[in-house]
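re: ur question from yesterday

yeah so i grabbed the chain u mentioned. its 264 aa long if i counted rite. heres the sequnce exactly as i have it in my notes:
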Amino acid sequence: MRPPLPVPNIHPTAIVSDSAKLADDVTIGAHTIIDGPVTIGAGCKIGAQAWITGKTVLGENNTVGHGTIIGSDPQAHPFDASIDTGVILGSNNLLREYITINRATAPGTNTTVGHDNFLMIGAHLGHDVVVGDHNIIGNNALIGGHVIIGNKVVLGGGAGCHQFIHVGDYAMLAGNATIVYDTPPYCMATREEKLAGLNTIGLRRAGFTPDERMEIKRLYRILFRSDDNRDEILAEAAKTEWSEHAAKLLAAFTNPSKRGILSH
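ran it thru and got these structure tokens back, copy pasting raw so excuse formatting
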């Protein structure tokens, strides 16, 4: 470790590794440690007492809150800490206080977070997680290893996602929900781990037209409100040529993760 850099935007008590690559305007708070071959892009602001370690890459204009840890070893036992993995964070993400993001487990892979996400206090992203863009992840939400989160998803405070599940675009998980199956796109999941219908308000706010929302609703009824068996449901759905938006819902139903998909 080298002594703190003699530049005004890096606090004198911060410790920055010789192998780290920082844009000229990066701000680093008191007692923060940038440990190892970390790359931090232009416009990033790192709060006090954070720890960013290993092969972690931050894009531009990210804000990292007090006490946040990015790039730490996965909570997987056993794990060989010499394995070459990392974390990649896109741009314009807001990470509040005490966020934890673990690095991946398979050689040459990364835990990845996209752009314009808002992670609230105490949220945890486990190893090998993939998070898309424009998501809101509430206070103390817990995302297990290998979970895939789509785009414009809302996770309520304290929500927990079991490892290996998928959460589709525009989905919403209730506060304190514990989800062990996939949540399909556009859908809401309850604390009782059941579907609670479509995220209609979210779709409206996102600019989906009335016709698009109606089509998604019609397909939702076929897939999740029918008493038919799976083959009969898919046969009924196949009778219609769905738009791109509705087709995402059908694809989630047709090809879920190995955990399966939520129902009513």
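noticed a couple things. The mean pLDDT is 96. also The longest strand covers residues 55-58.
anyway ttyl
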